[in-house]
Amino acid sequence: MTRPFALPRRGLGRLVAAVALAGGLVAAMASPANALAYDYTDPATTGCSATAITVASTAVIDSRNGANVGTVELRWSTACKTNWARVTRTDGQNALWSNVTVTRASTSDTTTFSAQGYSSIYSDQLYGQGYVVCASAMLERPNEGGAFGEGACY
What we know:
Elements: H1 9-36, H2 43-46, E1 52-62, E2 68-77, E3 82-89, E4 97-104, E5 109-116, E6 120-122, E7 126-127, E8 133-141, E9 145-153
Antiparallel strand pairs: 1-2, 1-9, 2-3, 3-6, 3-7, 4-5, 4-8, 8-9
């Protein structure tokens, strides 16, 4: 008669611990890949904007006269671990053209959103946990030249 395979109690504990450790390592290794799935997606559509905070901001300065005409913000989702850029015109004008960009510095991944006739726009998002991420923006109006804001990094 053949005995069914059985591990000694001590061996079974080691096996359970090894499987748990391997499962944790696989989950830890998979997390960034899953988070990268948010790259180039809309933070409002994905729900990431629901936990957004501003982690850095800078003024948007009119290149003609040095006036502060807006603010570019680097936004962060505490749930999704993503960043995106938002620019808001603060002088009561709508920009003829607005461009807002977020860049993951170490990988050079960049996403830019452009729109016409809005006082505030935002970019798509990039995974930002453990990376330096920067936001920049450009606003234009007829006969104004450009207004630029850059260097909002975190």
